[in-house]
Prior knowledge:
Belongs to the glycosyl hydrolase 76 family. Its main location: membrane. It holds the Pfam family Glyco_hydro_76. It is found in: Endomembrane system. This protein is mainly alpha-helical. The protein folds into two domains: 2-432, Glycosyltransferase (Alpha/alpha barrel); 437-489, no CATH class. It is 51% helix and 3% strand. β3 and β4 form a beta hairpin. α2 (31-45) runs antiparallel to α3 (68-85), α2 packs antiparallel against α13 (381-393) and α5 (119-134) runs antiparallel to α6 (147-159). The longest helix has 26 residues, at 437-462. Residues 20-29, 422-436 and 459-490 have low confidence and may be disordered.
Amino acid sequence: MDGLWRAIRALIALQICACYATPNGLTLDxxxxxxxxxxxxxxxxxxxxxxKPGGTPGMISSxxxxxxxxxxxxxxxxxxxxxxxxxxxxxxxxxQALLFQVGPNNNYEPENQTRTEGNDDQAFxxxxxxxxxxxxxxxxxxxxxxxxALAQAVFNRQAARWDDKHCNGGLRWQFNPLNxxxxxxxxxxxxxxxxxxARLARYTxxxxxxxxxxxxxxxxxxxxxxxxxxxxxxxxxxxxxxxxKEPGPIQWSYNIGTLxxxxxxxxxxxxxxDIWKTRLNGLLENTQRVFFPPEYGGxxxxxxxxxxxxxxxxxxxxxxxxxxxxxxxxxxxxxFTTKTILPWLQTSASxxxxxxxxxxSGGVVCGRRWYEPQDDGTRDIxxxxxxMSIVQxxxxxxxxxxxxxxxxxxxxxxxxxxxxxxxPTAADILATRPYTIGDRVGGWVLTAVLLAIAGLxxxxxxxxxxxxxxxxxxxxxxxxxxxxxxxxxx
Length: 490
């Protein structure tokens, strides 16, 4: 089977490189690319067990602490898989997962996730619903929440969380005051909000969404998160008095990817406005420098911050999948980007083939480092998602662009969102505000008082009679030189 896979791999590599490159406009049969995409989809979905007895639809329990957001990303990818290939094998599982996780208010805040869910986590499920609307994935039963309305609900929830008080705007990473990250504003949360607003603007033609997209991008580009060279950094912290000015040097592919896609949607919505073309070009130039490094030929996608050192965590192993997906939609709705993006997609897909093996009943398994000449032996659902994304991205120009309200079928609800946001309690505020010197001194005093009280209470409990109690108090208050009581060493 490995030999057959190698033969198919070589054939597809030739087809991808030849596809779209013929000057006379001849159409190349991409059935073999579809077949490999099916193999990769099957391998990715082998990780999913939420539909099995004892499982929870939409959750991947076999991965242990596998993040909820990444499950949402997987099902968004499966929506796109159906759209690219026409294969509906996984449609029922995908629809079940996307609807099971909506939560009691149909806004992707399920009760089993609200203690750990962040704005970015919620956004990836919203993206899956938005893709279902744009790509005309089969609509749910009319009694169930609809794809467009789900995306609008998440937008409304997040727009209400916009925080002008700290750092002059932006979304916090976490919206639960007790979560680590409540005092951070990161690119993925704000970038996802920007992209969601841009996509809703294009789909609905409601300019309110576009205004929010402009507002969020403008805030990021004037913050430390995006610099003048369109380097995109990860996060900034803040407290009640100051906003951190140094975000750190690390750049991740999904951060810049969500900005590329959002900018492409805004370019399309504004009928090619120069500002969005300029921003897209700037982001793509930085993408070339960082994620398609010259030492690997300049066209092979690389998660440079962790792949080279081999220390990508379970989140980071899937980041390239999102960059690939967002580059693919960008060439559909901002065609001027094709000359830059398409060679990346083609060459990266060919490179990904080289580190995959297996096929059919055994499943296709893929390594992580596409720039290496052979499989590195790593195995993870992130590897499968990235390989699948980069392969099917090469089908983008063979499919129609995402639909809008005129050509789509999904019903919307501009007022969706549900219950009001939980307000921070006094305990929440105390738990999340920064400590001061006064807090520390007060803590020391309080601790000393409590220890003294606890000691006296303990003596009362242990004392057999009043005389013992009197001696015990005298001993405790005057400082005994021999630490004994009732014959037992203390």
